[in-house]
Amino acid sequence: SEWATGKGFDELESIVIPDSVTSLGSRLFWNCKSLENVILSNSITNIEYGAFENCTSLRNITIPNSVTSIGDWAFDNCTSLRNITIPNGVTSIEDCAFEFCTNLTNITIPNSVTSIGDWAFFDTEWYNNQPDGLIYAGKVAYKYKGTMPSGTSIQISYGTRGIASQAFSGCGNLTNITIPSSVENIGDYAFGSKYYEPISDTAEFNVVKNSYADTWLQQHRYGNQTINYINE
User: Fold this and answer.
1) Burial class (CB in 10 A: 0-12, 13-18, 19+), 232
2) Cα separation of 46 and 1, whole Å?
3) Mean pLDDT of 32-40
4) In this structure, are residues 31 and 51 in contact, taking their beta carbons and an 8 Å threshold?
5) What is the mean pLDDT of residues 36-53?
6) What's the pLDDT tens digit per position in 153-189?
7) How confident is residue 204, by pLDDT bands cut at 50, 70 and 90?
8) Cβ neighbours for 211, distance < 8 A, ≥ 6 positions apart
9) CA distance 54 to 51
């Protein structure tokens, strides 16, 4: 069953979700600013849109291994959250899932995650502490941080499973990128969008023929961007 409404939860400080619950509904605990401790059942498979959004006192929550996806804005603005471990069952972390968790310092992301949405970790302490350059979140190329030098070439590490949406937005100086055959997911706006500076329209992509990246680029490249085939 799904818990779908958070009415009457405003004063909660702690809660234990029973085993009968398999999904936390959209904005279930939205704006529950007194909520500090949450114990989730091992039957929950997904945490939906905004489930804990703006729970500014939330400090302790363990995501069970049964969870496979963490929805948009699920923990947005949980400013007291300092540590989070994403369990091995999770494959996707959606847009802005941990955005504005300004004290979130330690994030453990398993190899099972292949998809990370726009700004999933924006303005977390974890992200802000990363050095400039391409940041990886588990096996996902998450975001290029800082100002990219003119004529930059990037080689995505072999074994990488995904490239996050907006990973290279604002990287107009990216002219050459090598994507290994291990990549099995690329976010729609991985190389920019109409809202953010896209990569060069003459960029060259180096991929393995018939790989996931090859198929994706056939549909998403634009301008005079070219695809070069390589062997690994």
Assistant:
1) exposed
2) 12
3) 93
4) no
5) 94
6) 999 999 999 999 999 999 999 999 999 999 999 998 9
7) very high
8) 179, 181, 183
9) 9
Give the DSSP letter string of 125-141.
HHHHTSPSEEEEETTEE
Each residue's pLDDT tens digit, 182-203? 999 999 899 987 677 789 999 9
CA pair distance 105, 126, nearest whole angstrom: 4
What is the rounded radius of gyration, in angstroms, for the C-alpha atoms of the chain?
19
Tokens representing 159 are 């074994």
Q: Which residue bears the tokens 């405003």?
A: 10
Task: Give yes or no for a contact between 10 and 32, defined as CB atoms under 8 angstroms apart.
Answer: yes
Q: Which residue has the tokens 């471990």?
A: 85
Asked whether residue 30 carries a pLDDT value surpassing 80, the answer given is yes
Output the CA–CA distances (angstroms, integers) from residue 209 to 82, 169, 180, 199, in the order listed.
Answer: 43, 25, 10, 22
3-state secondary structure of 143: strand
**b/e sequence 65-77, b meaning 16+ C-beta within 10 Å:** ebbebbbbbbbbb
